[in-house]
Amino acid sequence: MNVELVLATRMLKRSAVIYILCPLFFLLRSQNAFVTSLVSGITVAVGFYMGAVIMSYSAKISLSFYYFAAIFGYIFRLIFIFGLLLLFRGLYSIDELAMSLTVPIVFLSMLFLEMAMVIKRKDRDLDWANDNSS
Predict the structure, then answer these.
(1) Which residues, 6+ apart, have CB-to-CB distance to 24 below 8 Å?
(2) What single string gives the DSSP state of each residue in 9-42?
(3) Nearest-5° angle of CA 87, CA 95, CA 103?
(4) 134 alpha carbon, distance to own chain's centre
(5) How far apart are alpha carbons 58 and 37 in whole angstroms?
(6) pLDDT tens per residue across span 35-45
(7) What's the helix, strand, coil split of the chain in %, to 5?
(8) pTM over 0.85
(9) How far apart are alpha carbons 56 and 5 in whole angstroms?
(10) Contact indicator for 93, 32 with CB cutoff of 8 Å
(11) Which of 18, 20, 65, 101 could form a disulfide with 61, with the two C-beta atoms 3.0–4.6 Å apart?
């Protein structure tokens, strides 16, 4: 079982409210802010899921490669997110306020929601979650 992929998929589903509410909030400002917020939120979500894919497949190769992927995968995802947002900025007249607020709101909200689910032990059905050997 690809535990990281399952966790990332669940996290994205749990965070769907954030992807809807944040752009709708910026729709009050302008349509430009709405599109900017929507693209920024989706970019962060893709970065999270891409990290899960990298970690999941690197764990199948070896533990050393898993550690390597954890360190450099994080840097790669940051470059991916910032690069995609800069590309979007070059192609579209963005609302800087919407982008600069959406990215940390979505990023931190996803982390806090997942932290709450871990505390509530909502992911007990996964292989490693029931391992009591440590």
Answers:
(1) 34
(2) HHHHHHTHHHHHHHHHHHHTT-HHHHHHHHHHHH
(3) 70
(4) 29
(5) 32
(6) 999 999 999 88
(7) 85, 0, 15
(8) no
(9) 7
(10) yes
(11) 65
26-34, Cβ contacts within 8 angstroms, sequence gap of 24 or more? 26/95, 26/98, 26/102, 29/95, 29/97, 29/98, 30/95, 32/93, 32/94, 32/95, 32/98, 33/95, 33/97, 33/98, 34/98
| pLDDT tens sequence across 74-107 | 888 889 888 998 999 899 888 889 999 998 999 8
**Amino acid at the residue 118:** V
Provide the token pair at 101. 């607020």
CB 11 within 8 A of CB 48: yes
Task: Tell me how crowded residue 100 is: count the other CB atoms within 10 A of its CB.
Answer: 14
> 10 Å Cβ neighbour count for 69?
19
Q: Which amino acid is at 106?
A: V
Structure tokens at 12: 């994205």
